[in-house]
Amino acid sequence: MMKIYVVSGLGADFKVLEKLQFPEHHKVVFIEWLVPYQNETFSGYVQRMVEKVDDSEPFYLLGYSFGGIMVQEINKLKPADKVVILGSIRSDKEKSRLIKVGQYTGIPRMLPLRFFNDKTTNAYAVVRKLFDPKNPRLLQYFRVRDPYYLKWSIEKISEWKFEGTPGVIQIMGDRDIVFPIKNSKPDFIVKGGTHLFPATKFKEVSGILKGVFV
After folding, report:
1. Which H or E run contains 55?
2. Global pTM?
3. Which of 32, 67, 154, 206 has a CA 20 to 30 Å removed from the CA of 143?
């Protein structure tokens, strides 16, 4: 038996991943997001997240969306036997045009904290429903709403620079607008999958994971 450490997406709790089925001979351990300290560096934050991983024995890492970025950072400090990312990117070269605009302009850093409130996150969910019409309960996934955490996380995503680590297994949906598939060369493509494909296409994703986490 090996542990599979799992990190979910930005602002999302683990409901978005709850329908996924993993091989029964492994133990799944969910790593909760921490609220960043005031002016905390990304490297400092990763150091705190990595403390939750026991590397005294072999383990796997799985990350969804921003969690995919996080598990790759964790892997640099505590290497895993396998790293799998869902709806995420393997390097900063795969960022969407919108994220790159944020990186070059510094707009996320300039946005006031009051911008990241419940009204904003509700509006975000309404927009996302246009792309996930079959998932009317979208807000149930978006549970972590601390304004400082949201602002800090969006800043770090736009600023993230990473060359990529060989061997990281990438699973993407072909209708993902957050991390468009055209910018990547994923190992597995989920047909008709939006950014919420782990929830909407869970049977297909579960089959892929069972083949990866043998």
Report:
1. none
2. 0.78
3. 206
